[in-house]
Amino acid sequence: IPVYDAAQIETKWQKVWEQNKSFATDTKKDCPKKYVLEMFPYPSGDLHMGHARNYTIGDVMARQARMRGFDVLHPMGFDAFGLPAENAAIKHHTEPSTWTYSNINQAISTMKRMGFSYDYQRMFNTCDPSYYTWGQWMFIKMWEKGLVYRGNSLVNWCPVCKTVLANEQVINGKCWRCDTISQKKKLSQWYFKITAYAQELLDDLDTLTGWPENVISQQRNWIGRSVGTEIDFSVLATCDSDKLASEQAEFITDEQRSSLGELEKLTVFTTRADTIYGVSFLVLPPESEVAAKLVQGTAYEEEFLKLKAATEKISAVDRQGSHREKNGVFTGRYALNPVNNRLVPIWIADYVLSDYGTGAVMGVPCGDQRDFDFAQKYNLEIAPIICSKDDALYDELCCEKELKVRHVTWDQAMEAQGYLVQSGPFTGMKGGKHSQAEEAITEYLTNKGCARKTVQYRLRDWLISRQRYWGNPIPMIHCDACGDVAVPLKDLPVLLPKHLNLENGQTLADSKEFYETTCPKCGKPARRITDTMDTFTCSSWYFLRYCDPHNTELPFSKEAVERFMPVDNYIGGIEHAILHLLYSRFWTKVMRDLGLCSIDEPFTNLLCQGMVRDEHGDTMSKSKGNVVPPSSVIEPFGADTLRLAILFIAPPEKDFDWDTEVVQGTNRFLKRAWRLAWQFVFAARDAGLSTTIVPNDSVLEHTNLTHAEQELIRALHTLGLKCTRDFDKNQFNTAISAIMELVNAASKCFVDQHETLNPHLALRLAHDIVLLLAPVCPHWAEEIYQQAFVDTSKPFDSIYDASWPVFDEQRTKQSRIEIVVQIQGKVRGHVEVDADASSEVIQQAALESVAAQLEGKTVKKVIVIPHKLVNIVAC
Length: 875
Ligand code: ANZ
Ligand code: ZN
Known about the structure:
Blueprint lengths: L5 H15 L12 E6 L10 H19 L3 E3 L9 H9 L4 H18 L15 H16 L3 E11 L4 E3 L4 E2 L2 E2 L7 E10 L5 H6 L9 H11 L1 E12 L4 H6 L7 H7 L1 E9 L10 E4 L4 H7 L5 H11 L4 H5 L7 E10 L4 E8 L11 E3 L5 H10 L7 E2 L4 H6 L20 E3 L9 E2 L4 H12 L3 E7 L4 E2 L1 E2 L5 E2 L2 E4 L3 E4 L25 H4 E3 L6 E4 L3 E2 L1 H4 L3 H4 L12 H7 L2 E6 L6 H15 L9 E6 L3 E2 L17 H7 L1 H10 L7 E2 L2 H27 L10 H5 L5 H22 L3 H21 L6 H15 L4 H12 L26 E8 L2 E9 L4 H11 L1 H4 L4 E7 L3 E6 L1
Parallel strand pairs: 1-2, 1-26, 10-12, 26-27, 28-29, 30-33
Antiparallel strand pairs: 3-4, 3-7, 5-6, 7-18, 8-9, 8-11, 8-17, 10-13, 11-12, 14-15, 15-16, 19-25, 20-25, 21-22, 21-24, 23-24, 30-31, 32-33
Ligand ANZ binds next to strand 9 and strand 13.
């Protein structure tokens, strides 16, 4: 028996596959396609165990799909732009490109060493001009369609990365890349109008039945659709609050109103129009321009400016957090509640956000906890206008239309549903989100001309401009006369200049050679935009490019995309649940609307693999020094052992702790299976069989088999089917268990029969076991397959051109079964019958088997429970 020399076998087949382009796509054009894709890596160094797990999962899917007759597209590349390259280049005194390409080469060699079946002809890096030119091309198409704009607004700014961040890149108030608290800065920035697709991005989540539920719900929450009402309040021009107070004015008459004058309208967004009678203040955020105007030159301005400065230091997430103490200042001004002309003081507070809804809120302390907390702190009215029937106030107020009780006794807001009280004609109606009262009050105010039903989304437009160097330049030129002008398509790509002095802090904005240009419209001197695009733009369409990676006319042809898209199986980390997966969905829809393809969604099935932690359950990291590099397993045991261990240790979605014992155990199994396969092959050869002809089921049926051998055939079909089905469900760990069980059953039978297992059966088992393991342990399988099952005088014919073994449900059924025989409920014997024997036959066999014990007795009754037992009542 040949020794299992993993290193030698693995390098041998890797070379053969590469020479034969064994994993090229489009070799089976007449077959259905299968597009298997793993999220491409950022080339920050060599691959780690997380990558090994991610790519092994994809590789097993791809190899198996190949054996099952699909034309498989399984590409790989590198997400190669980004700030870490720049920082590393500065640290190592080199160019970002040099650092990036050297990491890429290292990662490719590890990928090859792992035996991943990529179509290497399709590989590209997003920093290749031949790729990023198309990113620029698509940017211009989007600009022409009105999906790109320049906006001047408060943006998230990372002081360490010295660049802006998209909303999606601020995680818990911190930069997603370096964990620094993000700041706010007013800058002129470039945006993609992703909000134009908010509704479709939300609706189509319902079609993504192959996605994990938590990713769907994260996207749904991120898009955050909210149906509500915009309500206008008029702000009084007179701000003499002392006068208003001394007159004890509370409700303003129409005459008073015209004498007081109207300064402007303040529009709030609310999902609870039903609570309008409980408004005890209006709130504006400190960055609001209206707020600044309201206090300008008044005694309230100083406090306002203090609050404004303090609020700039708090992140948006913290500002919304329910536990943080809320701070506010009064403006000295009042507005009128449109439902009853009641005076409402206008406040400015840090818990209101400027970029949600209308950026103004009606404060209803009795119904909203944040408003409740705020009212308590500043001693504002908390009038109960909604009550549940079991509340003490209910009986007192259920028919009360006027404002009688002005303070609740509750210690928190009533956010549940209840009935309106002290709410004029609406008193008694059921209140709450989307309630009868909410509808009625919205309708009433709408008819009065001061409200509108609206839909709000939490989703903001995608801020894509970045201010450093190593990224895809925005292909725009600014001309003082013509404004922002797109670079003509024929002039693309706008190449990233080389040799910037990054170590001295140089960015594109400092590169004269780059930015000095002329206006494409009027020919006068003009300045190129020196921002680059967020790297997430590069990863938003790479899966489309893989369908047609060498196209020089277009980013991809419609035919190629139609052939391979959508991706059937997409595998990657859960950290991309929003960012990358939302952007890619958006980009795909935009491409469709530009007429470049006709698919709505890019990824049919999504698998988010779990994390690989260290042996003690800690996340692996360089700083902790607990990283287990793939090479530490490949070198002693081989890539096949690593692949097998990674998949066997846990279901793919689950996190797992690294376990050296599992690695050793899987390696032992591979050696045992290797030995067994060879023993069986030799047994067949010794019996004069040609091992290139594998016995099918009918051949086995016509050979003389022992009972144990028949049971082994049954195990083959049962476990083969289980393995196949588990592969289909991505339950690789249990699929592998089934193979292990089969190997064990076969070894046992072989040993029990003193190594005289029927040679036809032995050959069939060896063949099927090798094929079943082929997706997971490709080199191991190819070696045995080539040495044992193919005619090597013919041209190379890979195991991946062989078809997946067929298993037969019929043959998983037992042919003979054992029935328990009882007399008066006590077990007295066993009898074997045909599995499909009739009740009469079973009864007869049972009676015969215990005939001796029934001597002299009369059988009164026989109860037959099919497939199980026979109970005889006799006396
Ligand atoms: C009055 C009210 C009464 C509210 C009540 C709630 C309960 P969703 O569902 O997330 O859309 N809101 C509106 N704009 C805001 C902003 N810019 N910053 C902070 N809060 C804002 O939330 C809608 C509710 O959030 C709105 O309904 C508003 O408070 C608040 F018993 O208006 B509500
Ligand atoms: Zn011009």
